[in-house]
Amino acid sequence: MYWSKLFIPTLREDPAEAEVASHRLMLRAGYVRQLAAGVYSYLLLAQRSLLKIQKIIREEMDAIGAQEMYLPALNPADVWQESGRWEVMGDNMFRLKDRFGRELCLGMTHEEVMTSIARGELNTYRQLPQIWYQIQTKFRDEPRPRSGLLRTRQFTMKDSYSFDLDASGLDVAYDKHFKAYNRIFNRCGLEFTAVEAHSGAMGGSQSHEFMVLSEAGEDFVAVSKETGYAANLEKAISLAQPPAQSDPDGDLTPEEFHTPGKKTIAEVAAFTGLPETSQIKSLVMVADEKPLLVLLRGDHSLSETKLEGFTGAREIRPAHPHEILEWFGAEAGSLGPIGVSNMRILADEALRGRRNMICGANKDDYHLKNATIGEDFEAEFADLRQAAAGDRTADGAGVLEVRKAMEIGHIFKLGYKYSESMGLRVLNDEGKEVTPIMGSYGIGVERILAAAIELFHDKNGIVLPAAIAPFDVVITPVNPDVPEQFEAAERVYRECREWGVDALLDDRKERAGVKFKDADLIGVPLRVTVGKKITEGVVEIFDRRSGESADISVHAAMEEVLRRVKQATAEPEPAQE
Q: Which of 418, 514, 515, 523 is nearest to 462 (CA)?
């Protein structure tokens, strides 16, 4: 392609609305333009990169025996109502009605539609296992779209779904996807980690997120360099740091003391002179409309994900002020477990064995000292706290760091959530009806591109991995009006095309500096510069990532470009089905 014929609207200045590097650079490099909040048009360069990403995804999905389909983005409400997610998805779902008043939505994901297809077509164990996938537009009514392509209302997802006869079959499908995802993200040139994750509204027994560590991310992960452990922060398991001060000895009796106006853990700590770790934090939660009293060490935070997992509740929320007053006779800030008999009491494992701690007295402006679990009140123990930086890993061998990260893929063992609720049945080898078990697996296509730019950029622009760059090489005649330069540049360009190298010829009548800056900005991995040395039969090859350049014979340029492109885009050995 000739640059002068293309639409590449580069910008010299950083757009004021851009929040993160990938957003700023995709606007500056002419990759995207915003149509509305969270809605973007993908211009030539972005589309070329996204198509290369999709090609890699297709190759790896096909290699594990997955079959590509394409499902409607417009879904009738009834399939979502069958699964119970019509209500669960809430305001995140785009909803509409047709001219006859029938309710519809724009698909956020396609578990329901895939299950409805399977329900109508699969009837015997001989048809299993199945893995079906698509690459398709999804819609989510984000309340605050931001960060360019990282949080949008319309996006492209690769979503796949597995159907198996039993749990061992699901294990195989899950492992296939786990390995395929590693291969996809490696081939796209990303630095990433797979972390244990929460299934959320998807449901299911197990899930992993594939994360790129980046300050542009909105998730937090706990990682240990020493052990390699990695988990989403809401799911991470760790050993708490020891309390700042030892508990008082002896079988002491709880004593009430006045704490006027002291409601927070920090205020009580300052008032008593004792550390936050000497207090019991009391949180009143409502799980499926039943009250719970959750107890944590004063300096710890609750993981609602862990609480949800332990209780099995579908919905958890903090209690409202009027509910707290009704149940405890006091306001938040003076609550505690002693004397509470009207609700279940759960205590975090970090409180196990602790004695003579401070807690609320269930009386406004009063607290108790010398509260001991198992003596002054009873509670069920569970891992309920959110891991924190500085905690040790569960095996004690490593220390956790908490890092910001962006999710690029997520895989789920769905279990029977959708197949059971939607009536999917097949006959087993004994002729009995059984319910197939399912998995769901997603990749955010645009997020791969955004993550790559977040990882690989510099002050001059984008430094994309070669496998997903919009072009492999840009050939730049310094002065296209000089016949020797332009003819040599065209010759290299034609040879690239003949050998299957994705080449761009910058034939614009611009100053050399402008061309070099634009090439750096849009992220082409290699540049062949044809300048004055062409009279000696020499051109320059410039590597965008390393910043290194080398002079080479024009006759050997094509061979060197081909060698570098093959090296940079080398594919791993294909997966075995």
A: 523
Query: How many other CB atoms are found less than 10 A from the CB of residue 427?
Result: 13
Tell me which amino acid residue 124 is: T
User: Exposure of 435 by Cβ count < 10 A (0-12 exposed, 13-18 middle, 19+ buried)?
Assistant: middle
What is the CATH code for 3-190+409-454?
A: 3.30.930.10
> Which of 152, 154, 109 is CA-nearest to residue 133?
109
Contacts of 314 (CB under 8 A, 6+ apart): 288
Say yes or no: domain 255-382 is CATH 3.90.960.10. Answer: yes
What SS3 state is found at 42? strand
d(CA 541, CA 3): 19
Report whether CATH 3.40.30.10 matches the domain 471-568: no
Q: Are 410 and 442 in contact (CB under 8 A)?
A: yes
CA-to-CA distance for 574 and 452, rounded, in angstroms?
23
Cα angle 68, 69, 71 (rounded to 5 degrees) comes to: 150
pLDDT higher than threshold 70 for residue 202? no
Alpha helices in 84-224 (DSSP H): 85-88, 111-121, 167-187
Q: What pLDDT does residue 88 have?
A: 87
Contact predicate 188/467, CB 8 Å: yes
| 577 — pLDDT class (breaks 50, 70, 90) | very low
Global confidence as pTM: 0.88
Give residue limits of the domains in the chain: 3-190+409-454, 255-382, 471-568
What tokens does 509 get?
A: 């009548």
